[in-house]
Structure prediction request, 204 residues.
Amino acid sequence: MFTGIVEELGEITAVETLGDACRFRLRGPVVTQGARHGDSIAVNGVCLTVVEHEGDEFTADVMAETLNRSSLGALTVGSRVNLERPMAVGGRLGGHIVQGHVDGTGEIIGREPSEHWEIVRISLPADLSRYVVEKGSITVDGISLTVVDAGSDHFTVSLIPTTLALTTLGTKQPGDPVNLEVDVIAKYVERMLGDRAAGTGAAR
Prediction:
């Protein structure tokens, strides 16, 4: 489990195409500290498994399903990415519960800078809009953010200077894709209420 608090901006240093999959090599001095084969690291909000680790770099395999459902397929050598290690048991949940399982992708459709923060407008797939509510939580490229305004096909978030400086959202422009993960609690509640309405819930 992750919290959506990005630890560092990493960089793609190599991309190897493997037919219906690919292998990334990424540089991340912070997240590679103590990293071992099989560990999980979130890359732009996608939970990936460490295959190899050497120095401040690690490799991770990305299968076709992940490439199709996320924006990772658009990454190239030199791309900057948000990196986060899983939360340790007993650690602080600084953001919200993030699984690293991307639900879909959106697109930056506008930016409105102000003196001390910036409003970013992001498109929202129709099948995810019911999970996004004003002042609720959403994960954008692995960043835990609070929804400012929620529409049927878009939402907005307000970014403080720290987020702009230390994550990919500081440089992404209109037209750029982003990974979206909605609050998992909303999906569980929907499923349980649906089962209750259909009379298929567990007996009490």
Observations:
- The mean pLDDT is 91.
